[in-house]
Amino acid sequence: GTRRRTDPLSGLNDQQHEAATALDGALLVLAGAGTGKTKTLTARIAHLIAQRRARPYQVLALTFTNDAAEVMKDRLSEMIGEERASQIWVGTFHSIARRLLAERPWLAGLAKGFEIADAAQSRRAVRIAMEDAGVEGHDDRDAVQAAAAVIATMKDEGITPDEASVAGWIGTKYGGDEVPEDVATAAQVYAAYQAILREDNLADFGDLLLWVVKALEGDESYRRDVAGRFRYIHIDEYQDTNVQQALFVHLLGRDHRNVCAVGDDSQSLYAWRGADVGNILGFPDQWTPCRMVRLEINYRSTPVILACANAVIANNKRRFAKTLRPDPTRRDAGPPVRVVGAESLEDAADWLADDIRLRQAECDDEPGTLVLYRANWLSRVVEEALIDADLPYTVVGDVGFWGRLEVRDALAYLALAVNPADADAWERIANFPPRGLGDVAMERIRAAAGAGDLVEAGRRLADAGMLRGVQASGARALADAMAGWRDSASSGGFADRLQGLLDAAGYEEHWRAADDPRADERLDNVAELLQVAREVGSAAALHERAQRAAQAERDDAPVRLMTVHAAKGLEDDEAYLFGVDEGIFPSAHAVRAEMHDGGRGIEEERNGMYVGMTRPHERLTVVHTSTAPSRFIDEIPGQETLRIEGRSWSRMRRRRPSADALAAARTLARTRRRSIPAAALNDAALLAAWTCEANSAAPAEP
Ligand code: ATP
Ligand code: MG
């Protein structure tokens, strides 16, 4: 092209320059957040192509997410032009393996044009395999889910169906101890499960890498062929690779050894999914002789933010010591890190929205803002506050609350109840949950209704015998549900009426029985919607909220909401960490496990905290609720503490429920979940934990 290209090496510091130009042999860049690892890796690729050390299609770059791959391609285009950049193999391990498998699908026992099974399809196959084998529990969702998870883990560990026997691998793994039931079941049905997928020409996610790696291991001529295509191999976020992925890299790189890995052990977040931080720490031994480059200057954040991030991560015992130093050309230390305590998540979110608005008014250029949290369910309360404050936002890595399928379904029920001639709403839910109204029946009803009442038109056709059997009963069931809504007009509050409508429609019932991995999340979201209904008190107000949300959610909005996991590698002007409470961040799961996992779970949570803290350029704000601020907050030095005044906040400040009390309380809250909305769940759990603790004679933790 004629576009001006930037020199790949311009602006790199000495260490970065060294890493970008050391092209031959193995290279590890082990360095902290924001030190330019991704920038250096990208510059290195552009440099070696500009130097004609390899053709673009001879270069492989493995990223952790598809988004990261897109960003890297854009940067490469700027440096070496779109034409050449588009030929580089940039992608996640899965997408690269999928490309390779598509060339030889028979490696996985598949035919050309195979597709990827989603989680529900996988579980269906497990269920059928269990049933065929006469294994107990095939009708138990949890048992099926557990066996499916074990099979996925076996694939990530490189175990094929042939190798998965209790006598073999599993026996070794449990070293003579009794093998847990789900593991034994998984081993028993693994081969049948695989056969069922193959019948439908489906691969699951784990298959993509598994069979390619097996073929690379078992067939030397195939390995030479594939390895020979890539002269240079690069891996970003190497700390989150699992054993199979490291093996894949080894099989492809071991002839020429031109392998460059970059990563940060302190940002390892996926141990629960089999990622092994040992891969990055063991890289120099696996690839001896290996050049090591350390980057220490962080170009992203203020000195104050870096000091806080350093102090927090220093509490992790298991880590490769490194410090982040600020950019020496920077003059100011930056504003202090703020820690804000509020009475509840709702109060915290309101304050946060206010503060963002204030910042936007203060600054000439609207600052880009990240709102980061530990788990997706926390987005609802933040979204609510942002909508009230008329602040546009976007939810990254997930659709926003109001765009979620189940929320839109519930709103469609309401819309149809209010106006039975609402064609959009009727289209959406007339046959969802399924009630036998197929395309033909729907068309008849549409024709009979004209511009009028679709619900009554259905009933009329049923009564006239023009719909029969399930179609007739389906049309009547919908009409009955809507009639129930009208009948309840004088008797109940708005939220109760809406709940009644959804009950009559069998909506939540449908998800409770569904074989859908997201069913629990969907039920949480419906519960959240009912909570909002309770707050706003009318159908009109609820629809107005949804509409305002649709306007507030905007792709290019300056405010971006996401989990800390989704934020890895990203940056922006300002960041808020929201919900930094004991039991949320660190998660209740990690708190519970603390007694028997030697604190590993907590250390991984702290890595997440470190990832979150190192995203902003200028300003960092940590928000928690008053009941139980996270232990991580105590680790932040020199913080500016703000309190949203409320009840007995200061009295509770230094106390924290014990792990057991918290666990007990959460179980309690979970079993009553239908009546406790998700956003309140944690508060309820924490409050219950306080009560438990107050009632027990045990001394409070320090
Ligand atoms: P993370 O650990 O979060 O993935 P990283 O180590 O990959 O971070 P980058 O994202 O590559 O770091 O860089 C962080 C920021 O610092 C980017 O805005 C980048 O442009 C900037 N940066 C990196 N190196 C330099 C440099 N030598 N001069 C100026 N800015 C730099
Ligand atoms: Mg990076």
Description:
It is built from 32 helices and 17 strands. With 702 residues, the chain is α/β, with parallel strands linked by helices. The chain folds into 4 domains: 14-100 and 210-295, P-loop containing nucleotide triphosphate hydrolases (Rossmann fold); 118-199, no CATH class; 338-398 and 553-695, 3-Layer(aba) Sandwich (Rossmann fold), CATH 3.40.50; 402-552, PCRA, domain 4, CATH 1.10.486. The strands form 4 sheets. A 7-stranded parallel beta sheet has the order 13-14-12-15-16-11-17. Helix 15 links the parallel strand 9 and strand 10. Helix 10 packs parallel to helix 12 (243-253) and helix 22 (469-487) runs antiparallel to helix 23 (494-505). The structure holds adenosine-5'-triphosphate and magnesium ion. The site of magnesium ion has 3 residues, from helix 2. InterPro entries: DExx_box_DNA_helicase_dom_sf, DNA_helicase_UvrD-like_C, DNA_helicase_UvrD/REP, P-loop_NTPase, UvrD-like_ATP-bd. Residues 1-14 are annotated as: Disordered.
